[in-house]
Design brief:
Number of strands: 5
Radius of gyration: 28 Å
Largest sheet: 5 strands, antiparallel
Strand content: 25-35%
Number of helices: 1
Mean pLDDT: 80
Strand order of the largest sheet: 4-3-2-1-5
Helix content: 10-25%
Shape: elongated
Structural class: alpha+beta
Distance between the termini: 60 Å
């Protein structure tokens, strides 16, 4: 991939790592001076993300990443069970244990220390 810095230098190499701050580590790097008249070959280099002007990533790499993301998304959907049933809401559905009055209705005190049906309260 190609990395151009704000000062005009370019780095062309293989991406090893990239973090959330867009700091990049490249291997087998060819560095070019801002004027384009000098070149250096580096084994590895680290580039601070705030100095980067732009990145040029090969289309083949983008396609590969998209395919991997799609496969991962499909795999995670299958692992969760996938189907949604309307009545099964889980905790806090307002119905309490098997329809017992746990404070979900208006008026009347909740039985056995329910939360009262409104907000989280202070637990007093």
């Amino acid at each position: 991939m190609l990395v151009e810095l704000k000062n005009g230098e370019t780095f062309n190499g293989h991406l090893v790592n990239c973090d959330n701050f867009m700091n990049v580590t490249l291997r087998e790097v060819y560095q070019t001076s801002p004027e384009g008249d000098r070149f250096w070959k580096l084994k590895e280099c680290y580039i601070r993300g705030s100095t980067i002007k732009y990145l040029r990533v090969p289309d083949a790499l983008l396609d590969t990443v998209k395919e991997e993301q799609t496969k991962a998304r499909d795999a995670s959907r299958g692992a969760r069970g996938g189907t949604f049933t309307r009545g099964a809401r889980g905790r806090g559905d307002g119905h309490g244990a098997r329809g017992a009055n746990r404070g979900g209705g208006r008026g009347g005190a909740p039985e056995r220390g329910g939360r009262g049906g409104r907000g989280r309260g202070r637990g007093t």
